[in-house]
Amino acid sequence: MAEPQKEPDWAIENDWSEEDLRQYERYSTNFYLCVYDRREERLLGDVVDISLGGLRLIGSEALRIGKVIPLRMEASLESGRRECCEFQGKTVWSGEDENPGWFTAGLEFLDLSTSTRKMLHEIIAELSS
Fold first, then answer.
1. What are the two backbone dihedrals, phi and then psi, of residue 51, each rounded to the nearest 5 degrees?
2. Taking all residues of the chain, what is their mean pLDDT, rounded to a whole number?
3. Which residues make Cβ contacts (< 8 Å) with residue 76, sequence separation at least 6?
4. How many other C-beta atoms can be found within 10 angstroms of the C-beta atom of residue 89?
5. Rounded to an integer, what distance in angstroms lies between the CA atom of residue 43 and that of residue 80?
6. Phi/psi at 114 (5° precision)
7. 75, 59 in Cβ contact below 8 A?
8. Exposed, middle or buried: residue 52 (CB in 10 Å: 0-12, 13-18, 19+)?
9. pLDDT per residue over 4-15, tens digit each?
10. Taking 60 as the threshold, does the pLDDT of residue 2 lie above it?
């Protein structure tokens, strides 16, 4: 008899209430927002949507739930403006995307600096216009 399979580290698992999940309004991205792991200097993926509380990422590898990652986001906005900001993000959920070979993850922003928070406000303002 086969043993039950162990849930992978990246499986969607969280105890967030619907209210917690919708604490911030989300904005879909229609342009280039890439997120990099600053420690390993590698691309983690592209931002699918973003809020003042965090972002949803799509990439070619699964992220481990609960992991805190030093991140850099590079933005090329529709206005032609380019921005770069650094912050810490915590993976709160992760799972396979509907497209084979791709994974999505939800990252919560941690301890944003005043300048990073201001930049996020500006990026979101441009997305919402």
1. -140, 180
2. 82
3. 31, 32, 33, 82
4. 24
5. 22
6. -60, -40
7. no
8. middle
9. 444 444 444 445
10. no
Element (H, E) at 124: helix 114-128
For the chain, the structural domain boundaries read 24-128
CB atoms within 10 A of CB 64: 12
Q: What is the mean pLDDT of residues 18-33?
A: 58
Give the largest CA-CA distance in the chain. Answer: 60
**Residue where the block lists tokens 């972002």:** 55
Q: Residue 21's CB: how many other CB atoms inside 10 A? A: 14
pLDDT-derived band at 123 (thresholds 50, 70, 90) equals confident
Please report where in the chains the tokens 């933005």 appear, as a residue.
Answer: 75
Q: How far apart are CA 100 and CA 60, in angstroms?
A: 10
CATH C-level class of 24-128? mainly beta
The tokens for 6 are: 């162990």
**Per the structure block, which two tokens stand in for 39?**
């420690």
